[in-house]
Design a protein that fits this description.
Strand content: under 5%
Structural class: mainly alpha
Oligomer: single chain
Distance between the termini: 24 Å
Order of helices and strands: HHHHHHHHHHHEEH
Largest sheet: 2 strands, antiparallel
Number of strands: 2
Length: 262
């Protein structure tokens, strides 16, 4: 019971800090919307139709949701570094709860915040010509939460091994932006050069973006724009299986890392 209460307390604390930091909320929303307006609206005419009924704005929108979830999940790990620098992490680690509970609470906190941010961006879908029935929303939210958990676990694992906020910012930027640009957020991942195709396929965010795009745009349109592995077009279930496997590895690493903290 102590461990469950500890998970809840850590999760609630991260959500409370997020809610009280209004500037963080505003900037986290402004950044993806800026991409949608500048790139999506600005380049739609030049890019033309990428698939039947899918212009560049519609193509980008699912990718921007994936990007929002990725960035929020990654950045949430900074709370671990912040707590370490101010001594609060040491107090958590000596509390009568397991280190696994600490990692779980941090991961769930970051994933919940990422889901909220992605959900807010999703509310702007009609402005960019993306419409979907309510049943798709019920399917999309669990997918987004799975992606958020996997990426939050990765962010927490990395943060648990980093000692300063400055180093954390450098490492996160070094990893985050290549994962975004090589995930199909801004361009279709088919017909790429061989070397880039390999990088795209080993990027777990690619499969997260592909699953979101298939749900929002429909399998027919997404099949022309999505990822193929060894000539096989990846389905939503196969995409999510890869994301889930990556998430399990990251969760295990995060729990192990917290278990070895001094």
């Amino acid at each position: 019971m102590n461990n469950l209460w500890g998970i809840y307390t850590i999760w609630y604390r991260d959500l409370l800090r997020f809610w009280r930091d209004k500037m963080r909320i505003i900037t986290a929303l402004a950044f993806p919307l800026l991409f949608l307006v500048v790139f999506g609206s600005g380049l739609s005419g030049a890019m033309g139709m990428l698939a039947p009924g899918v212009d560049f704005s519609k193509f980008m929108f699912p990718g921007i949701i994936g990007m929002t979830v990725l960035m929020t999940s990654f950045i949430s790990g900074v709370s671990v570094v912040w707590d370490r620098e101010f001594g609060f992490l040491k107090e958590i680690l000596v509390a009568p709860i397991s280190r696994v509970s600490v990692a779980a609470g941090k991961t769930l906190g970051g994933a919940t915040i990422a889901l909220i941010q992605g959900g807010i961006i999703l509310a702007f879908a009609p402005l960019f010509g993306v419409t979907f029935p309510p049943i798709i929303l019920l399917q999309l939210l669990p997918v987004m939460f799975l992606v958020a958990c996997a990426l939050s676990a990765m962010g927490i694992f990395l943060a648990s091994r980093i000692k300063s906020i400055e180093a954390h910012q450098a490492v996160i930027q070094l990893l985050m932006f290549p994962m975004i640009f090589l995930s199909g957020v801004f361009f279709p991942v088919n017909n790429l050069p061989d070397w880039m195709g390999v990088l795209v396929k080993i990027n777990p965010v690619t499969y997260a973006v592909d699953s979101i795009r298939q749900l929002l745009l429909g399998a027919e349109a997404a099949s022309l724009l999505g990822i193929t592995v060894f000539g096989h077009r990846m389905s939503i279930g196969e995409d999510l299986l890869i994301v889930a496997a990556f998430g399990v590895v990251m969760v295990v690493l995060a729990m192990w890392s917290f278990g070895t903290q001094e």
